[in-house]
Amino acid sequence: xxxxxxxxxxxxxxxxxxxxxxxxxxxxxxxxxxxxxxxxxxxxxxxxxxxxxxxxxxxxxxxxxxxxxxxxxxxxxxxxxxxxxxxxxxxxxxxxxxxxxxxxxxxxxxxxxxxxxxxxxxxxxxxxxxxxxxxxxxxxxxxxxxxxxxxxxxxxxxxxxxxxxxxxxxxxxxxxxxxxxxxxxxxxxxxxxxxxxxxxxxxxxxxxxxxxxxxxxxxxxxxxxxxxxxxxxxxxxxxxxxxxxxxxxxxxxxxxxxxxxxxxxxxxxxxxxxxxxxxxxxxxxxxxxxxxxxxxxxxxxxxxxxxxxxxxxxxxxxxxxxxxxxxxxxxxxxxxxxxxxxxxxxxxxxxxxxxxxxxxxxxxxxxxxxxxxxxxxxxxxxxxxxxxxxxxxxxxxxxxxxxxxxxxxxxxxxxxxxxxxxxxxxxxxx
Length: 430
What we know:
single chain; mainly beta; Jelly Rolls; 28 strands
């Protein structure tokens, strides 16, 4: 699946057809769709949203998604998938860090089974906040998932994912990300033990940040986001569909696979992005710049400049600043920061922060380089230096995170984390 064809663009109006001559010309829902198909619209925004913010996709499919064979949805219990601040537990104002969790091998576990929610905020019904999950799985899905609560930003850390969506296939590996629209059916195939971070976004859909004084080039380019080419199951078989709705999971059996879309057009589409294409902006004189210049995608809130969620990456880059403490400074801020490490070493935490691990620094919780990073950066020769073979990321939110019971009691919480700053003594010289 690594050589799949793709369409280029993010937020663009795209179109694809698996069978030539299927897409209607000049209208979206003709009286009779070509080849006996049904027209169906998936709307990701209000009908009257401004044109630039209106997201929708027309699908031309073998059966409409209302066909469920007369089987009602029934609850599907899931002890470790949580939604909204109400499902979190009281979380202390401490810096928190987790060791990498092992991927269980004792029993089959697909993407849905493997969800372990770490932190939550906001309210899915109020269209605010996010949930941060770690997915630990080892088996490909034989069922479909429809998340009606939010879109899903997937950051693979170990193992490649092949994702079948209603619009076609995406293949993502560590270093890539995948963004799956709210309400679109998908299933995930894996090629072995797999670990991935997931941001379930209940707020405004992710979009590219404005560039402002940066100008017309920099950060993530729309053309580097790749959308699937239309593909459908040639012989749709009965399948279980799991629907996430109102913070709970529900399931039903449908008479045929939901992956039966023969053609589509629109701008509400699943996409993948290779973070190696991110054009890093940085300082070439002095001082460490704010992490906002590393923003790949943003979900705005009702307060301009304060995001519901920013997805930020820290990829390989050159450091050339003069007379500057080059790692991030010690800081507290209004945004809450959840970090993960895909591979390599994070420059501010050479001790203890491992690939597959996580950290959380809530709003106004002090954090910054550990003692080892401080000593090294304070005494380093300030020649041009490249941070290489590394990829860390951050889900940054205006809302305070509440951890889940699993996160605080599941055995991976690093109780020694605060000690990484214990040797930063009083160095004042009167």
